[in-house]
Every structure is written in C-alpha cells, then in structure tokens.
Amino acid sequence: MLMKGTAARMxxxxxVSLVFKAKANKALDKMEDPRxxxxxSYQRQLELLTKVRRGVADVATSRKRVELQMNQLQQQSNxxxxxxxxxxxxxxxxxxxxxxxxxxxxxxxxxxxxxQYAQLQAEEEKLTVASQRLQSKVDAFRTRKETIKATxxxxxxxxxxxxxFSGISEEMGDVGMAxxxxxxxxxxxxxxAGAIDELMASGALDDAVGGQRDDIQNELDxxxxxxxxxxxxxxxxxxxxxxxxxxxxxxxxxxxxxxxGAQAPQGQAQPASIPAADRPAEPQDGEG
Length: 288
Description:
It is built from 5 helices and no strands.
C-alpha cells in the first residue's frame, strides 16, 4: 500500500510538473519576439568572434616573445663561438672549451624554443583560419537575420492591417463591442420611451406634475374635447354656407348666361343648400 501511494504521488507530481512546463512554454512563446531572439544570437556570435580574435592575438604575442628569446640565444651562441675562436688563437684551449660548453647549453635552449615557436605558429594559423570562418558565418547570419526581421515585420504589419479590416483585432473588437452596447442601450431607451408614452396616453400612468386623474375626470375631458370639436365643425359649416351665395352671384354678373342653380362642372362639389334662416332677404317692390 505504501508503494502504491508513493507511486500515485509521483504520478501527480509529474503531471503537475508537465502542466507547469506547458503553461510556461506557452507564455514564453507568446512573449518571444523572433527579432529580439535573432539580435541576441547575433550579439553572442560577435562576442564569440571577439574571444577567438583575442585568442589569436594572445598566441601571436606568445609566439613573438619566443621569437625574441630565440634571437637572444642565437646572438649569445654566436658570441660564445667567437670567444672560443679567439681563445684558441691565444692558446687558451681551456677558455675555448668553456665557451663552447656555454654555446652548447644555449643551443639546447634555442632548440626547445624553436619547437615551441613552431607549435605556437601552428596554433596561431589554426585560430586565424577559425576566426576567418567564424567571421564569414557571422556575416552570413547577420544578412540572414536582417532578412528574417524585415520579413517578420512586414508580415506583422500585414496581419494587423487584415485584423483591423476584418474586425478581429483586440482594438477593433473593443470598438465593435462598444458600438454594439451603445446600439442596444439606444434601442432599449427608445422602447422604454415609447412604452411610457403609450401608458401615459392610455391613462395607465399618472401625470406626476398634473396630479392624479381618475376615470370620471378622463370621461369629462373626453366630452369637453368632443364638444369643442362639434363647435369648430359648426363654425366651419357656417363659413362655407355664407360664402356659397357670394360665389354664385359673382358668377352670374360675370357671364350673364349662367343661372343661379346651374350645375357645377364635373369633378367639383355641388354648392351646399342654403338654409332658409341664412338666406339673404329679397327686396320688396318699390325698394331701391
């Protein structure tokens, strides 16, 4: 049982670790900018190239130092040989032997320095070739980097333009949502205003300014409005009736042929009959 519990906990921990790694990878992928990554890689390559060049310079310095030591030993060896020759000329074989022994020691050191010089020279040549190759790779990477950055920038700009036109970008999406909310609120306010107007017209809502209105008051108001309409209608009829004889009289005086009761042309309304009470009084015989 203990082993099973331990195995279960280990499985849970692995799953949790996998989830965290997946989340972290997704977050890093979202935050990563290929242009910044390329610039960082190029910077690291430049640093490596600088280190290689510094190594070449250090090897060349060491080679030069060995070369100076070799020259000094060669000069010392030549000097000892001359001294041995002079000592033999003076009959001092012991001095000549001592000078030649020193020359042999200097020659041994010179041989070691020559081997070291050859080794440093070969190392310098290798580092020089490596530096040149690395320089070529860095130059090629720089060209490739700038091309990729330009392509990525153009693709990014095109994507933003397309998203703006299609309305799927975050900025345009927020604008579209704001417009939709404004339209919804406007439609809601219009519907509310229309509903309130209908309720006030029907009397379902009370007028807060004019006071509460009951059914009797509403009916009285309707009767008053109807009475006003009937009075206005009677006034208009009286004006029409009073104006009709004047129109007929004017027509008879103008033509001299039309009778007072002549039929109106087709398409025109017949003159209204004049009530007896509203007819003008006829002149009596003997009155002017």
